[in-house]
């Protein structure tokens, strides 16, 4: 009874998309939490619903892995387009990141004037378009056909991008936007931090282009919370919620899986746990050693969820950039998402607001419980005060519910301290974890594996994985 072809451990974006693509198999998906979706889940607290992390949905467009996978899963999401993807506010000046190129450049010229704005952003947009039209994108190791497909992908990338592949983001910025102001650089770096988890200092030009082009695509708001996408995607999947996988043992032709409730066998195992947490599931020394070979990425998120009583109209998303890093954070900006006024579930008792910034993953773990509470309050209060200064129509009394999450909270609910993968830089490009492991039948998926984080990054990785498991 408990024999499966594929066992997927975790219902994050990666685990859910790969399951939705393989409903024709004898597949089971385990999720430790009561909510599906991991960093993209929606949870309920004291009668109100909140998004736990992800709030923007990008990539639901023709010829994009996300739309392709949703179509194959026969699922049409309940979404609405955010006409202004993000309003970026720095020192009370605002730039709207809109899809229309000319309007965006007009906005930029007003707030961050530079003679070469058009040339810079046009190059960024063109590189991004070229990337999403690649046909052979693939990255996997430990198998001859995987290496061949990866080599083909490299050849295609070299043909399409030529010398731009070797160009660094920094040199492109310095050449094109010479004399760039600190404010303009902060505008670029703050957006990169949320899309590709790092700043422009040590990344290739191509990463810069992908990170900055996010709002040149349609950005969608998900009605009823980001988590609703997972309910839809997994409607035909055998899902075991509230069931944590504790140990996995490799046997000759299958894996024996021990959960908090039962024991299972599966020929193939797909781990949606992060690459840094997967080793703890095994006693096998070689498997442990493999996972321990990836150095930890000490980055996570600090998230504040609010319910706000207000009649005011808000955009879906804002990014506020400050002059220096926020307390206990590794970022000088924070991202604010408001629920849509007409969202019957999220806005039932007021706006559901998710505010997030980057913080170290291990910082919070080291603190005593008293110090933890104190530091959490410092960060929370700082952000809320700044938020109220930037949203002048709001007052403190309008906030009718508030709670914050640190990396400790992410560990408690979804079993990971770190959030997001290691950014792909010149130095580590070949160490990027592959979905295929050196162990037959054992795979990984999610934002710590190629191609990285967020819906688009994880979806590329899912397409690669799907080819690998069905090879
Ligand atoms: C604050 C924040 C804001 C973000 N905003 C956006 C955004 O606006 N748009 C966007 O596209 N991306 C955003 N991202 C990034 C995006 O959310 C993540 O990259 C993505 O959700 C990660 O997906 P994943 O497949 O790696 O799975 P994860 O989200 O890591 O989920 C893994 C799942 O596996 C489960 N699991 C782990 N171990 C076990 C086990 N042993 N047994 C059973 N279950 C297990 C966990 O409970 C979890 O549900 C944001 C991330 C954060 C943290």
Structure description:
It contains 13 helices and 19 strands. With 471 residues, it is of the alpha/beta class. The protein has three domains: 3-41 and 59-77 and 223-296 and 424-469, FAD/NAD(P)-binding domain (3-Layer(bba) Sandwich), CATH 3.50.50.60; 99-220, no CATH class; 297-414. Strands 1, 2, 10, 11, 12, 13 and 19 form a seven-stranded mixed β-sheet that branches. It is globular. Flavin-adenine dinucleotide is lined by residues 9-15, 30-33, 38-40, 53-56, 244-245, 272-274, 301, 303, 356, 414-416, 419-420, 446-447, 453-455, 458.
Sequence-ordered SSE layout with sheet pairings:
Layout: E1 3-9, H1 13-21, E2 27-30, E3 42-45, E4 48-51, E5 57-58, H2 65-72, E6 79-81, E7 84-90, E8 93-98, H3 101-111, H4 117-132, H5 144-161, H6 169-176, H7 182-196, H8 205-213, E9 219-222, H9 228-233, E10 238-240, E11 245-250, E12 255-259, E13 263-271, H10 285-292, E14 300-308, E15 317-321, E16 333-338, E17 351-359, H11 369-390, E18 399-405, H12 407-414, E19 442-444, H13 454-469
Helix pairs in contact: 1-13, 3-4, 4-8, 6-8, 7-8
Bound molecules: flavin-adenine dinucleotide.
């Amino acid at each position: 009874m408990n024999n499966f072809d594929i066992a997927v451990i975790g219902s994050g974006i990666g685990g859910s998309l790969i399951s939705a693509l393989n409903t024709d198999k004898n597949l089971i998906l385990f999720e430790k939490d009561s909510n599906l979706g991991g960093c993209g889940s929606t949870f309920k607290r004291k009668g109100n619903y909140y998004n736990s992390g992800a709030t923007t949905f990008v990539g639901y467009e023709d010829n994009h892995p996300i739309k392709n996978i949703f179509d194959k899963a026969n699922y049409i999401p309940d979404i609405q387009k955010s006409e202004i993807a993000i309003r970026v506010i720095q020192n009370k000046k605002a730039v709207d990141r809109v899809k229309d190129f000319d309007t965006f450049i007009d906005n930029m010229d007003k707030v961050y004037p530079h003679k070469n704005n058009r040339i810079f952003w046009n190059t960024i947009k063109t590189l991004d378009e070229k990337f999403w039209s690649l046909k052979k994108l693939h990255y996997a190791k430990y198998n001859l056909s995987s290496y061949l497909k990866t080599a083909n992908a490299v050849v295609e990338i070299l043909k399409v991008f030529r010398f731009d592949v070797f160009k660094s983001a920094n040199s492109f910025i310095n050449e094109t936007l010479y004399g760039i102001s600190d404010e303009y650089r902060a505008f670029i770096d703050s957006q990169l931090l949320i899309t590709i988890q790092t700043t422009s200092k040590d990344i290739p030009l191509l990463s810069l282009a992908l990170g900055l082009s996010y709002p040149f695509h349609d950005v969608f708001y998900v009605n009823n919370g980001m988590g609703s996408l997972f309910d839809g995607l997994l409607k035909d999947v055998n899902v075991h919620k509230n069931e944590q996988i504790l140990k996995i043992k490799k046997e000759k032709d299958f894996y024996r899986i021990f959960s908090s409730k039962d024991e299972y066998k599966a020929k193939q195992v797909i781990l949606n746990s992060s690459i840094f947490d997967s080793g703890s599931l095994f006693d096998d020394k070689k498997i442990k050693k493999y996972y321990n070979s990836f150095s930890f990425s000490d980055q996570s998120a600090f998230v504040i969820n609010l319910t706000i009583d207000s009649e005011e109209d808000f955009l879906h998303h804002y990014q506020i950039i400050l002059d220096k890093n926020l307390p206990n954070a590794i970022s000088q900006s924070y991202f604010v998402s408001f629920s849509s006024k007409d969202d019957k579930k999220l806005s039932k008792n007021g706006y559901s607001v998710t505010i997030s910034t980057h913080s170290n993953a291990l910082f919070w773990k080291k603190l005593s419980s008293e110090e933890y509470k104190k530091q959490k309050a410092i960060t929370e209060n700082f952000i809320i005060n700044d938020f109220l200064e930037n949203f002048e129509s709001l007052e403190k009394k309008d906030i009718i519910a508030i709670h914050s999450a640190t990396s400790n909270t992410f560990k408690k609910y979804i079993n990971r301290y770190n959030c997001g993968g290691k950014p792909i830089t010149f130095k580590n490009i070949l160490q990027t974890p592959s979905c295929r492991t050196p162990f037959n039948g054992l795979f990984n998926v999610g934002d710590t594996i190629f191609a990285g984080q967020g819906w688009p990054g994880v979806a590329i990785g899912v397409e690669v994985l799907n080819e690998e498991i069905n090879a």
